[in-house]
Amino acid sequence: MPAALSKAKVDAREKELKIPNEQKAAICREKGGKVTIENAPIRSNELKRGEALVRLIYSGVCHTDLHAILGDWPIDAKMPLIGGHEGAGVVVALGEGADEFVKKGDRVGIKWIADSCLKCDFCRRGHEPNCPDAQCSGYTWDGTFQQYAVASARHLSHIPDGLDLESASPLLCAGVTVYRAVKEAKLLPGNDVVIIGSGGGLGHLAVQYASNAGARVIGIDTGSEKEKLSIQLGCEKFIDFQKEKDLVQAVKEASSDGHGPHAAIVAASSPKAYEQALDYLRPRGTLVVVGLPVTDIKANVFWTVFKSLNIVGSYVGNRQDAQEALDIAARGKVKAIYKTLGLSDLPQVYDDMHHGKIAGRIVLDLDK
Ligand SMILES: [Zn+2]
Ligand SMILES: [Zn+2]
To answer: Per the database record, which ranges form the Enoyl reductase (ER) domain (predicted)?
Structure first.
């Protein structure tokens, strides 16, 4: 039996359901341009069927948000754009029919998949992220860097009572993404899994979700701080890729029977990490591809066949994955590590991110 959900601290702002006339939003007006914090209208009177207005209090910042404004991905984002897809807040208004999914006052999360048709082959099988009509928060649909966001009610995630909105927000993309990646690794309890980038923004959550699933986690990262964090969060072994001369051999030796781990989840963006993983995985092992932006993975065809390896791409999770990832955190099994800043700091955060100066996750208090 899972432990009962405990009550988390409730932000006084969660109780304020009155809608003001104006809000603050971070808006990017052109591809490659800057983001500015502006006063913006709130669309409370224009809610369409199935839409809900969410009073957002916190939003995480993801690397994808930077790609959206830079416009360096193969798919262009809408412009002007309000970015962000890790939003946590409270439902304050409902369009017609939205009450089938949420009620006023519900604590909810806005994730990357803003909407999907729920009728196509992919949606019917729970693969909503692959729906040809999927909308993405902060990319094709205005996102969470605003105080009042319009959301498709059927795709909102419910944030359990045991989880405060601030800690929930980084789970809505980073958490759900790695939780799904752990599922794609098809691990059995006791199996060995390597998390590459175990001390990073995605990796530190992957370590926790994998050990919660009963896997034996081997962390790969570099530096004593990341080593300490990896061990503290559940890695049974840690390998520093900068100190280790023969990484492939070291990982094999760290696996329980010396034949290599059952799965490797790459939550880092180094092409070498993918190649090494294919070398140290045991026969029938699974490589889960999560870390972007690596352009190609080089896989030797002979060894891929001979070792019967699986190479699996993992995008984000579906609605059920999001709910499970949040529930596990509410039960105290997973905790995101992040730093909280204000919405007004977003231009600086983007700048630092662009220059590789951000370590770990950033959460924005949208009232600051
Ligand atoms: Zn993201
Ligand atoms: Zn669909």
So the answer is: 32-364
Distance CA 193, CA 127 (A): 24
Q: Which domain, by its residues, includes 268?
A: 176-313
Ligand nearest to the CA of 134: 2
Closest CA to 207 of 224, 239, 229: 229
Q: How far apart are CA 281 and CA 307, in angstroms?
A: 9
- In a domain, residue 4? The reply is no
Residue 346 gets the label, from left (phi > 0), alpha (psi -120 to 50) or beta, of alpha
Q: Are residues 263 and 354 in the same domain?
A: no
The domain tally of the chain equals 2
Alpha helices in the chain (DSSP H): 63-70, 121-124, 165-168, 174-184, 203-212, 224-233, 247-254, 271-280, 301-306, 319-330, 346-354
Distance (angstroms) between ligand 2 centre and the Cα of 303 equals: 36
From ligand 2's centre to the CA of 121, what distance in Å? 7
The Å distance, Cα 123 to ligand 2 centre, comes to 4
Cα-to-centroid distance, 250 and ligand 1 (Å): 32
* Cα-based distances in Å from 305 to 255, 264, 299, 300: 22, 18, 10, 9
CA-CA-CA-CA torsion sign (68, 69, 70, 74): positive
Per-residue pLDDT of the chain (368 residues; tens, 9 = 90+): 344 455 677 788 998 889 999 999 999 999 988 999 999 999 988 899 999 999 999 999 998 999 999 988 888 899 999 999 999 999 999 999 999 999 999 999 999 999 999 999 999 999 999 999 999 999 999 999 999 999 999 999 999 999 999 999 999 999 999 999 999 999 999 999 999 999 988 999 999 999 999 999 999 999 999 999 999 999 999 999 999 999 999 999 999 999 999 999 999 878 888 899 999 999 999 999 987 766 788 899 999 999 999 999 998 999 999 999 999 999 999 999 999 999 999 999 999 988 877 777 999 999 99
Same domain, 162 and 274: no
In this structure, the answer to whether residues 163 and 215 fall within a common structural domain is no
